[in-house]
Amino acid sequence: MVPPQKKHLHPLDSPPLTPVPLTPKEQKVLQFIRSYSEEHGFPPTYAEIQEEFQYKALSSAQQFIEQLVAKGYLEIPLGENKKRALKVIPPLHDSPGRTPEALVSIPLEGSVAAGTLKHSYQNRDTVEVPRYLLKSSQDYFALKVTGDSMIEDCIMDGDLVIIKRQHHAMNGQTVVALVNDETTIKRFYKKKSSIELHPANPNYSIIHVESSAEFKILGILASVIRTCD
User: Which of 128, 135, 183, 185 is 20 to 30 A (C-alpha) from 158?
Assistant: First the structure.
């Protein structure tokens, strides 16, 4: 057997890695949580976030929290007051435990379409990524993004996405999904009698998954890595 080839993506090498990107709306929510926590000594509740941004439903606040947790900017510690169980994770340069030198190898399992559905393929490469992007108790893999249907969520053509391997997701989470042997990365929404995969680019249409289609969630988005030429 030919051993898998290992690709190195070290944050200190050229090209450098940029921080995990946030959308403008995510940045505003994170800044509110950070400012509120500094002023009061504890984080806001979901209802207070909803009130601050005048969301019509509490689920909108929950969705942004989930996105910030997935991208590594917030965490929800176990055993704390559930109404205020939010903790802002310090930036890399302020947190000695998040040193970029600590790398871990994960499978690089091919590419995923950020556009229309695309036939999937797998390879046997691995890629080294910063350890702080991963939780040791969970299973991850990486994919190369092709296409621009998720650009408003700061997922660009050529990015490397780190995916937490699991077969379920909450509405609004970004997933890698398999539809009839074709893969795509989109926002997942389960309706009463159907499944929808939403792009983050107005030039693309929602993918409506037919009830007769073979559908499977392969994982949810954990982080995005971008190299700069």
Answer: 135
Q: Residue 72: which CATH number?
A: 1.10.10.10
Distance CA 103, CA 106 (A): 10
Is 186 one of the annotated active-site residues of the chain? Answer: yes
**Catalytic residue of the set 186, 191, 205, 223:** 186
* β-bridge pairing 215-225 and 160-165: antiparallel
Domain assignment of residue 193, yes or no: yes
**Within a domain: 164:** yes
Q: Are residues 146 and 219 in the same domain?
A: yes
- Point out the catalytic residue in the list 60, 71, 120, 149: 149
Query: pTM of whole model > 0.85?
Result: no
Range of the domain at 37: 24-93
Q: Indicate left, alpha or beta for 79 from its phi (over 0: left) and psi (-120 to 50: alpha).
A: left
What is the per-residue pLDDT across 127-149, written as a single tens digit (0 to 9) for each? 888 777 777 667 899 999 999 99
pLDDT in tens, 91-132: 644 444 445 447 788 888 888 887 655 555 556 688 888 777
Total count of domains within the chain? 2
Answer yes or no: 149 catalytic: yes
| Tokens found for residue 97 | 């435990």
